Amino acid sequence: MQSISCPLVIAFLLLVASAPPGTTAQEPTQPAAGQALQSLEKQLAAAVSDARLTYQHVFVLLGSLEGGPVLRLYEDLHQEHDSLAHAMQNYRILPISTADPQRDEVRKLLQKLKVQPAIIPDQFLVLFLDEQGKLLGKAAPESFYRGEGENRALNRPATLASLKKHAPPPLSSRELLDNALADAKQSGRRVIVQETATWCGPCILLSRFLEKHRALWQRDYLWVKLDHRWPDTEEVVQDLRGDATYPIPWWAILNAEGETLITSIRAGDQNIGFPSSDEGKAHFREMLNTTAVRLQPEQIEVLIDDLK
Prior knowledge:
alpha+beta, four-stranded mixed sheet, 12 helices
């Protein structure tokens, strides 16, 4: 995989954070100077909306996105196979530039979030928000680093403690599935089981799509997300699909007894993931047509037609 420089990573995160639900940034391109991608309130609303879907909290990172302390913090928190990187899976990152011309908008956002004092940071400021956008806490550079100059280093124990403190509590995939199956028996519905992870772009697209059309499909289905952050997820997923491995999102439709009726694996042993291709749409149509109880064919086509 081609490496991407840190400034482009931050720019890409900014593009993703500001993309409206149902879209995704395709290339990590540097935004032009003064380019307004979205208002900060809309960026925040999009991040909070995704956090609800993915059972995360929001990690708002305020500072200069051109380099320096913000880039260093991002690098320090995302070392491969690191406990801090794992802890960061509990957060939707929302990078916000404090450079002109949006400094006034940043101040207004701080006031709206009831951050005291509502002062733009010299280096960076981290805000921890819950899935409703409520401020849980804030952290300045001294909360993450210790020492000065060349001796300045990440305070890993303090940083990890802060990330765990402000994260949502872990769930049990087994309990979520058992509760959904019990509900399915009472309501005469099926269960959509989605294997997912917070770092998976197609998983988020699928979640956004299902949430958008919840009022339509929920007459026939319940929806359970088995996230790889939770310790029993691998075991539960293996019970459902055996030893076969597929890219995520892998998903299946179960009956109320927990029996698999159909999965996202189409002909040729290919996982449709987020079904945006013609083959994916065709298999998604088959998944619904073979398991729907109350949904009519024309209602299923409404879902298919909205896949992009």
